[in-house]
Write a structure and sequence with these properties.
6 helices, alpha/beta, 5-stranded mixed beta sheet, 51% helix, 166 residues, 5 strands
Length: 166
């Protein structure tokens, strides 16, 4: 029996697109003999956002068991926080839907795959938190050195005068 698979792809900025992810995931599906029932593509949306239009649509379809597996290129495409990823996978589990992550070679239909999913998910959150700490530290260091951060103001003396008059 052919496995019904959903593909999920996401990029963070509008300048990027999901073409490469979709091509790779379609190749994987073809090589495994899987039937792709739908592709869910969120473009220009951060993985840290819990609610994303296509992810939300996919989760609704998961509740009605439209597919038996979700394939994605990287774990970070699906989500960034351990809590959010666990919520997604727990819903999948409750509906007997498995997760396949190509670049990490994860398949939660196996005990080992589920174990490694939990480890990689925790490491991904750790990396995200480290990056955030480094950015904040770098900004604070720049401020200490007197660097002015942010956009250059567009407040001219003329505009300031008009504001005061109003």
């Amino acid at each position: 029996m052919t496995k019904r698979v959903a593909i999920y792809a996401r990029v963070s900025t509008k300048e990027q697109d999901c073409t490469r992810q979709l091509v790779e995931l379609n190749e994987v599906a073809e090589n495994h003999g899987w039937k792709i029932v739908d592709q869910y593509v969120d473009e220009g949306i951060s993985g840290s956002k819990k609610s994303r239009p296509e992810l939300d649509r996919m989760m609704k379809d998961a509740i009605s068991r439209k597919f038996e597996m979700v394939a994605t290129l990287e774990l970070s495409r699906l989500g960034r926080s351990v809590k959010n990823m666990c919520e997604i996978v727990d819903l999948f589990k409750s509906k007997n839907i498995h997760l396949f992550v190509k670049n990490q070679n994860l398949d939660t239909s196996t005990t080992v795959g589920e174990f490694f999913f939990n480890i990689i998910n925790s490491v991904a959150q750790y990396e995200r938190d480290l990056i955030s700490e480094r950015v904040v530290s770098g900004l604070n260091n720049a401020k200490r050195k007197g660097k002015k951060l942010g956009r250059k103001t567009n407040l001219t003396p003329t505009i300031e005068q008009r504001i005061r008059q109003m």
